[in-house]
Amino acid sequence: MPDTHRMTRRMGLRTAVAAAITVPLMGTLPASAAKPTNRRLDVMTFNLRFASTSEPNSWATRRPVMRRLLRQEAPTLIGTQEGLYQQLLDIHADLGPHYDWIGTGREGGSHDESTAVFYDTRRLVPVEHDTHWLSDTPEVIGSNTWGAALPRILTWVRFRDRTADHREFYVLNTHFDHVGQYARERSALFLGQKIAELDRSLPVVVTGDFNAAAHNNQAYDTLLATGLVDTWDAAAERSKLYATFHGYKPLTPDGERIDWILTTPGVTVHRAAINTFALNGQFPSDHLPVQATVTLG
Known about the structure:
The protein has 7 helices and 13 strands. The protein is α+β, with helices and mostly antiparallel strands. The protein has one domain: Deoxyribonuclease I, Chain A, CATH 3.60.10.10. A 7-stranded mixed β-sheet has the order 3-4-2-1-13-12-10. Strands 5-6-7-8-11-9 form a 6-stranded mixed β-sheet. β6 (153-161) and β7 (168-175) form a beta hairpin. α5 packs parallel to α6. The model is unreliable at 1-34 (pLDDT under 50).
């Protein structure tokens, strides 16, 4: 039976927060909820590869590997791309009861790909959120005006941290087009404009599959020109570099990073990593997850 409560809550998000009203959710927290003292956030961006029945990399085959990876890493928040509704429900179940997620399909329904954001409810509380389409008409569901091969979306969430200072911050998660360079460049401009419209006093974390190589694409240059910082470059410690898309083929050392985590200035990046986890040769996705451990300024 479909989880109609969850579907209604997420599919109705555009109406619920169209006016961008801040909801005082902290008043609903249990009095017994412990406040974490560690202010570091473990952030992951992960193109999940949509749930397919095609072997040898079907979702049924990959799901146990995904479960092991996510339970092992237990990120504070995860910006995902390509997840289908039932696949997202699977991941939610596999992450466990202390996680929830926010997102909607790029066609506005439950049977298409999403840019869902998962978060650890013991640490983070969503205050407001919305989805925009990467087009000249960002409020029109399914719109596509920049020649992208598919409609593309941006999901953003304003979170309140349960740490003692109740610090708030934004997460913007997206998936740029895989074909059209013009669409990628316009999407980068839109993302920068959206960030400029937010509360500038709050830190911003950007996650996504940008389908553009870091340091070698105008879309990347556009985003960094807004002042965003690439956590890979800013990290005090880094893992070995691999191309973040592998297509289930041998990994490419020192390859292109098309999946990024960016932040506004003032965020301390302790570590950045490209996670190569596999189980008996099976990868959880055709992308490698990218991770960053940060402290918001």
